[in-house]
UniProtKB/TrEMBL annotation:
InterPro entries registered for this protein in UniProt: Transpos_ISL3, Transposase_DDE
Protein name: Transposase
Lineage of the organism: Bacteria, Bacillati, Bacillota, Erysipelotrichia, Erysipelotrichales
Species of origin: Longicatena caecimuris
Short name of any one Pfam family annotated for the protein: DDE_Tnp_ISL3
Ranges of residues in domain Transposase IS204/IS1001/IS1096/IS1165 DDE: 152-407
Residues making up the signal peptide according to the UniProt record: none
PANTHER family tied to this protein: TRANSPOSASE FOR INSERTION SEQUENCE ELEMENT IS1557
């Protein structure tokens, strides 16, 4: 009996009788009866009750990792002599109306806190069905939206199986790195409706929004957060400039035949153009060029292929210097000087970049603002995007957005806890009813 009470984590004096056996499939079966106690009627509160009968309840219990465990609990059914109400005695194994033990519920919720866990893997560890694991999660995990902080990062990630929208929109606290909320889409009208439901006083506290160069985000912030400044993540600006430089390279490369040295250099060493700094390193023998050569020398040969390519590379290099070494007090002056250089270019791809930079000038300058010694950036958002993708990938995709949102909020926020005292109805998708089955 000592082993059984330790296994079930209940006091030995509360157990009247217990025994264990093994089923044909290897499951551990524990038969247990608790000590009789006086219970008040849940309807009238009277203690004038007597035992009506005994009923055996089968409870799934994850006390062991090596095999499944089933508690056969001989429960007393009481009847109130005052009002006639019948009720079962309380027990330490499970809440009223459930067939899964409280320990199993806690184990399921603790395992689902890890982003690489799936409902199937958690169900397998606790000897329940994946559907039951989903039901437990939906009953106890409902994460509410967090209060808007002073600095919000906004970004989208491709992570949903839905014909209506393929992207989910994430709102992140820049300072605490906590996920504020997750929205089912990034469309402009949906974001406007969502933010309109937020109290105006809460929206007025937001000072900065950090985003990529997605025009609807900027429009939404201007409409719903008139006091907030917008900062563009520098990574996305540099990426656009690199993409334009790469487009120039591809256009020039296509002007050469595939067996030429120029084509070979542009095709195989294109990464040198996109490097922030090309270090000298050791010279290596190149069979195609028939000489010993290092990376800076290779870069010089590539830039010598076309004046347009060299000009585009110098503009990229100039922006990287501005992005790395400028600060907020000098950003506008340095930006204008850089734009005067870009404005002289007649390369089609660079003309597009000039328009982009001019369009987002204010937001780019705001990105140099420092808060607690940190520059405004969406860098932390990229790591959060990877967690969302991991949850989606390990779960083989989600079609129920409410469950997907709760799972991401539950995994990504360390202080997000299940509400065990107030279980709610499971989250169900709206869809067509299943038709009759015909063999």
């Amino acid at each position: 009996m000592d082993i059984i009470t330790d296994l079930l984590n209940i006091p030995q004096e509360d157990v009247l009788s217990s025994s264990s056996s093994q089923s044909e499939n290897g499951s551990l079966i524990i038969d247990i009866t608790l000590v009789s106690k006086k219970f008040s009627c849940p309807s009238c509160g009277s203690y004038s009750t007597h035992i009506k009968d005994y009923r055996t309840k089968s409870i799934t219990h994850s006390a062991l990792n090596s095999r499944s465990c089933l508690i056969r609990y001989r429960a007393r059914c009481f009847v109130c002599t005052v009002c006639g109400r019948t009720f079962f005695e309380s027990n330490p194994f499970l809440p009223s109306g459930h067939t899964i033990s409280s320990l199993t519920v806690l184990n399921v919720l603790n395992e689902l806190k890890e982003s690489n866990s799936t409902f199937s893997s958690v169900a397998r560890h606790n000897y329940i069905s994946p559907t039951k694991a989903q039901e437990i999660f939906d009953l106890y995990v409902r994460i509410k939206r967090r209060t808007f902080p002073k600095i919000i990062c906004i970004d989208e990630v491709y992570a949903l199986k839905d014909n209506h929208s393929k992207y989910v929109c994430l709102l992140l606290d820049f300072k605490s790195h906590q996920l504020i909320d997750m929205l089912p889409e990034r469309k402009k009208y949906s974001l406007l409706n969502y933010f309109e439901r937020i109290p105006i006083g809460e929206r007025s506290n937001v000072q900065y929004f950090i985003m990529d160069m997605y025009q609807p985000y900027r429009d939404v912030v201007h409409f719903r957060f008139p006091k907030a400044k917008i900062a563009v993540d520098s990574f996305h600006v540099v990426k656009n400039i690199n993409d334009s430089l790469n487009a120039v390279r591809v256009r020039i490369m296509k002007g050469y035949k595939s067996n030429t040295v120029e084509y070979y250099l542009l095709k195989n060493f294109n990464w040198l153009l996109l490097e922030k700094e090309v270090r000298e390193g050791k010279r290596r023998f190149n069979k195609r060029l028939n000489q010993y050569i290092n990376y800076p020398q290779l870069l010089d040969r590539i830039l010598a292929i076309s004046p347009e390519l060299k000009e585009a590379y110098q503009i990229k290099d100039r922006y990287l210097l501005f992005n790395t070494y400028s600060d907020f007090s000098n950003a506008e002056k340095d930006f204008n000087e850089m734009m005067s250089l870009i404005r002289k270019s007649h390369i089609p791809e660079i003309v597009v970049i000039h328009k982009m930079l001019n369009n987002w000038k204010e937001e780019i300058i705001n990105s140099f603002i420092l808060v607690d010694g940190r520059r405004l950036s969406n860098g932390i958002m990229e790591s959060r995007n990877s967690i969302v993708k991991l949850i989606k990938k390990t779960g083989n995709g989600y079609v129920n957005f409410a469950r997907f949102r709760n799972r991401c909020m539950y995994c990504m926020n360390r202080d997000a806890l299940p509400c065990l005292s107030d279980a709610q109805l499971p989250i169900r998708m709206n869809g067509k009813k299943r038709g009759t089955y015909k063999k």
